User: What shape does this take?
Amino acid sequence: MRQGRQIRDQGDFVVPIIRVEMFKGRNREQKRALVRELTERFLRTCGGKAEQVHIVIADIDPEDWGSAGELVADRLEAKKS
Assistant: This one.
């Protein structure tokens, strides 16, 4: 997880965008809980209003993610065999 760039909203305040990139497989309830927790913790730490906090969740397929010089999908297949 990384905190992304910030954008200007309609007023003079800066809108935080929190971007989460993770493998596919979480259901809507898990994502809903994640958004709620990230928003609450951001506000507790940095202040602001919930309406100003934006969360972007990107579900990534393991065949579209590389680590340590190989596709994660290949590594997962190798563990199965």
Notes: The first helix runs from residue 28 to 46. The chain has a mean pLDDT of 88. The longest strand covers residues 14-23. The chain has one domain: 2-80.
